[in-house]
Amino acid sequence: MKYSPRLDELLRTAESVCVLTGAGVSAESGVATFRGPDGLWAKLKPEELANFDAFLRNPELVWEWYAYRKKVIHEVSPNAAHIALAEMESIVRDFTLVTQNIDNLHLRAGSKRVLELHGNIERSYCTACGRFDNTVTVTEDRRVPRCSQCGGLMRPDVVWFGEMLPQEEFDQAEEAAGRCELFLSIGTSAVVYPAAGIPLRARSSGAYVVEVNTEHTDISPRVNESLVGPAATIVPALLARMKELRKGTP
Ligand code: NAD
Ligand code: ZN
What we know:
The protein is an alpha/beta fold. The protein has helices at 5-13, 24-27, 40-43, 46-49, 52-57, 59-75, 80-91, 105-109, 167-179, 198-204, 231-246; strands spanning 16-21, 94-99, 114-116, 119-126, 154-158, 182-186, 208-213, 225-228.
């Protein structure tokens, strides 16, 4: 793939890189995206499941859905895009990986520091006392997990519709977007705010913003460069180019 001279220059020199990933980065691992022709959205209505009222109304159903998603995630592996991003972290001095995914695949690929804006499906906490217990799951008889300390209802540590993003992670993501030289927006439809505003924040602070997606998105007209194609091909190629251009430099 041929990159613009500006992107090549940044792959060679950028000391500060920020990356935002969405469901598309995990698509080639076999985790369905929400949007797109065969997204989960088409079959189920996550808006009706992924919110606190739905959970209070029918915790069995919501837990069953998350247990299903967890099972799918356990059966898949990080792909070449996750792995390339983990390696990029060891090359770039100031590297920040921000994800909207809850699938834990970046950490499994070896990324050390990940800002998880929407939580992580592997964690759960008690809605009554706040205690974390990551071992809980639904039992065969569909009984919802209860807190072993207070008996409260446990919930997955994921951000549902209508809920706030974790403030500290979001602030750190915005800061990283504001100070980076190169920003990569990978596999995100860029429609779910406030995360979708992060690439625009980077652009307005002077970063060169590159989008990696199989199709054009709402922010395509506002980025500096769009690389159209699958993340598991494009991201490793970007890493390879970065390594080639930095060869011999300390
Ligand atoms: P989305 O599902 O809205 O959009 C996915 C984007 O990825 C689309 O623009 C699509 O064109 C692109 N895409 C699909 N396959 C790709 C590939 N192989 N390479 C590159 N791009 C590809 O995803 P989003 O913007 O992250 O949606 C936001 C919400 O959906 C978030 O809250 C996220 O937590 C949640 N979500 C997470 C997972 C997960 O954890 N893996 C899965 C589904 C949805
Ligand atoms: Zn409790």
